[in-house]
Predict the structure.
Amino acid sequence: DVQLQAYGGGLAHPGYSLRLSCTASGFSFDAYDMTWVRQAPGKEPEWVSSINSGGGSAYYANSVQGRLTVSRDNGKNTLYLQMNSLKPDDTALYYCARTTDWGAYDYWGQGTLVTVSS
């Protein structure tokens, strides 16, 4: 079975950093693009970042560009999201998602909560 397990969320002060991880199992991790999506309380899900299967290309939402960095370690079947200079607007549940060739998210992790507050 395909499984995605996101973790690393928590409470951080504005300006601080967090690193999210997402471990994958049940499929060939290095064959798939991966995506981070977040959902703030009371809001629609928002695409955050995607990375291609080899890790050589990454894409970011304007709201996180320059502060968040996506990466992956295919040897460890793990996706990362380094979050720097956190803002209160970054408060959300963060999900990792397997991304198909046509850009759909066919499997999701359970989400990890990031709360940015002073």
